[in-house]
Specification:
Blueprint lengths: L1 H8 L3 H20 L1 H19 L8 H47 L2 H6 L2 H21 L1 H21 L1 H8 L1 H11 L1 H27 L1 H6 L3 H53 L5 H42 L17 E11 L2 E11 L4 E5 L6 H8 L7 E6 L2 E2 L5 H5 L2 E4 L10 H6 L7 H10 L3 H6 L17 H15 L3 E5 L7 H12 L6 E5 L3 H5 L3 E6 L2 E5 L4 H8 L1
Parallel strand pairs: 3-8, 3-9, 6-7, 7-8
Antiparallel strand pairs: 1-2, 1-4, 4-5, 9-10
This protein binds adenosine-5'-diphosphate.
Adenosine-5'-diphosphate binds next to helix 14.
Length: about 575
Amino acid sequence: MIKALKNKYALSDQGAKDLLKGIIYSVLANISLMFPVILLAIVLNQLLAPVLGTNAPEISAIVYTVIGIVILAVVFIFHYCQYTATYLGTYDESARRRIGLAEKLRTLPLTFFHQRDLADLTSTIMGDCANFEHAFSHTVPQFFGAVISTGIVCIGLLIFNWQMGLALLWVAPISFAIVILSRKCQEKLSKKHMNTRLELAEGIQECLETVQDIKACNQEEDYLRKLDAKMDAAEKAQISSEMTTASLLTTGQMFLRLGLATVIVVGNSLVVNGDTSLFTYILFLIAASRLYDPLSGAMANMAELFSVQLQVNRLKEIENYPEETGEKEIRTNGYDITFDHVRFSYEKGKPVLRDVSFTAKQGQVTALVGPSGGGKSTVAKLAAKFYPLDGGRILLGGTDIAPLNSTMLMKNYSIVFQDVVLFNNTIMENIRVGKKDATDEEVIAAAKAAQCDEFISKLSDGYQTVIGENGSTLSGGEAQRLSIARALLKDAPVILLDEATASLDPETEVNVLKAVRSLPSKPTCIIITHRPSALNICNRIMKLEKGHLRQVSRESILEVANELV
Ligand code: ADP
């Protein structure tokens, strides 16, 4: 049972145990609610006996009061246990689930993050986990509790009086059938709603990230119109999903109430014909009101139960994604990077690199040039094993990087992309990210080598200046220099600069490259740049065009640079 719950809802062992406990207490709490019904029927039977001339046991008011207090205590205890088992258990499980997800994400290969949409991932981690929390505290245990307890009570009522039992219960299977048969339709609408919500989240995230460009290109109206359309689509999908679910649910719940009418009709005729006692009739009338409530609730919970299953599937997708494996011990003979007949495509049938072979030697700066979209960034990313290859090999110091563990491999790389990532912290700490245990002196030396010192000294708090979210208080060139300083501080044997110097003036760019060349570790550096001044001090220049690579002679640098402008 615990195993089945664990698999069905992707729960931990403890989570499945807590859920089972919640269900059991839910069953007991629901059954305990039948005790006041029985007591009320006995009281009414005794009160009506003199009027109707029937026989009823004589019980004193004190006995009724004592029984009433005991029943109240039992009801309270079971409800209290149900509350603590479901709510506290759920929040513990929720914490475990979030930590588990974070742990899992830590072990996933980089490919996963390049393939997955960030908005989708955020929605799974934040939104789905919050929905789980609600479902497992308010719905799932209560649903199973209601179904099981009602089943037990139904069996008792059928044994007590099968005719009245049938009159009361015939509506239940039909009502449930209405809701269950409409599941496919509800799932389809719920999936559509989830997709439109994701598209909207992506749209809003994209809008926030690109707000400056949107304004600069006067695309605000156009963009807002598209965002409005996404909001409308999400709203419509939500309304249609909720309306359909609500109408089907209400139909099922209304049908359930028909049972009360049959209890009255069948009960009347049985009492009139003397086939049953007044007590039984009263008992079934009160039971009808108590029994239909949990069943109605269970039906309402079914919709949430269906949608939880969709979210469980999304979560399982992450949980079942193959973890980063590979050899953790990396042995290389030097740090030359060799591309050996590399073929690669992001999408099947659209090759980006067709047959690329070259070696970027240790201690040298190798420049990649070529038209935009030619595949330069792709080469840099593949050199760091961001994606698996279609064919060929990439070697680091003679060792194929394919079977190596990416996290361990990354310790050998300093990568600076054009899109700089900075943290809302001081300049000192932003550079120290490159080497956690670096002293202040080492950080300052790296900043000087990356030509940052001049602008940092002009800031009122110098290295202690807080630079805002993603370095929002810095210019593009300053932010790039900080990220280069971080890479220099790491002093990894491989440095990849992907348009990382594009916002620097030519002189600064040359000085940065000179700093890279004079690093004590003599790294292998691959740089993507277009400027003749920078190309001039590179050891080799490779031109990438239409998926093929060829070496460019030093004499034709100007020609190449002009072609690219
Ligand atoms: P370059 O750096 O020379 O401008 P890129 O390596 O960025 O070129 O891109 C090469 C080709 O691969 C382009 O056609 C680009 O559209 C495509 N591409 C780049 N990144 C992705 C990606 N993540 N998914 C799909 N296609 C991509």
